[in-house]
Design a protein that fits this description.
six-stranded mixed sheet, 6 helices, alpha/beta
């Protein structure tokens, strides 16, 4: 049966030291759990923002085992929470690349869902350039998970720009989107895109972001957000590390969908 619960988004400014990043992530998860969160989401690349894009390839683990996955399972089990591990680099079928994967750990420490990032970011600015396809193999499967008390849909960062991904999964209660949006694109597009995804899918959106100046010189936008199905911002953290929480209320979802049945009015698919 669906029920109201507290969800938390963790914002980080991850660096080049994996152990230090994991320790800080564990502290934030503990903080969120102590404040009553039942579901906690970490940001994309929470475990490493390397000096080089290839650094994450050296960190790749087989799905189901590895030091990163064991530590995350321990966090979820220790605090009795559902833990969305932002992204973890998993071994790819393509040599020299990784799968950039969100893993959802249950309170028992077991993986309940996995989503491999489908859309790979590419951007060229005046002093910055990114091409994720150089080191990441794209996923292919839209993913959602029914936890009994809530139905979740998954996306990662650049996926936010592709609403057709989430339309394939609709309806769902909560879209979880870990990200490491650049400061340049984030300032222009982050909030309006997130609010649009909440409004058009009549769902909550929980976006856990990287937010600050990183050791490798990269500058991420931050502004982790929790948004309700009417597009209202319930919680936000602009820059730096921390945790935001908000209640996910299934009655509000039902109210919005019954008063404005846009999902039922869809003609094209």
């Amino acid at each position: 049966m669906k029920q109201t619960f507290l969800a938390a988004a963790v914002q980080m400014v991850s660096g080049v030291d994996v152990a230090a990043n994991l320790d800080r992530a564990a502290q934030h998860v503990a903080d969120a759990a102590a404040r009553g969160a039942k579901l906690v989401a970490l940001p994309e690349y929470f475990c490493l923002m390397g000096e080089r894009e290839t650094d994450k390839v050296a960190l790749a683990e087989p799905f189901g085992d590895g030091p990163l996955q064991r530590r995350l399972a321990d966090m979820a089990q220790e605090h009795g929470v559902w833990l969305l591990a932002g992204t973890v680099p998993l071994l790819s079928p393509e040599p020299g690349k990784v799968l950039n994967s969100s893993l959802l750990f249950g309170p028992d420490g077991q993986v309940a869902a996995r989503y491999d990032k489908i859309h790979l970011f590419g951007f060229s600015g005046e002093n910055e350039s990114y091409c994720e396809s150089n080191t990441i193999h794209p996923g292919a499967t839209p993913t959602k998970a029914d936890l009994g008390f809530s139905e979740l849909a998954f996306g990662i960062c650049y996926d936010l720009r592709f609403p057709e991904l989430f339309r394939q999964l609709s309806p769902f209660d909560l879209l979880i989107l870990p990200a490491a949006f650049t400061a340049t694109t984030g300032q222009a597009h982050w909030e309006p895109l997130l609010r649009a995804r909440a409004i058009e899918n009549q769902c909550y959106v929980l976006a856990a972001a990287q937010g600050g100046r990183h050791e490798n010189g990269r500058h991420t936008h931050g502004h982790s957000l929790i948004i309700d199905p009417w597009g209202r911002i319930l919680a936000e953290l602009d820059q730096g590390e921390g945790v935001i929480l908000a209640a996910i209320d299934p009655d509000l979802i039902q109210s919005v969908r019954s008063r404005l049945p846009a999902l039922a009015h869809r003609v094209l698919s």
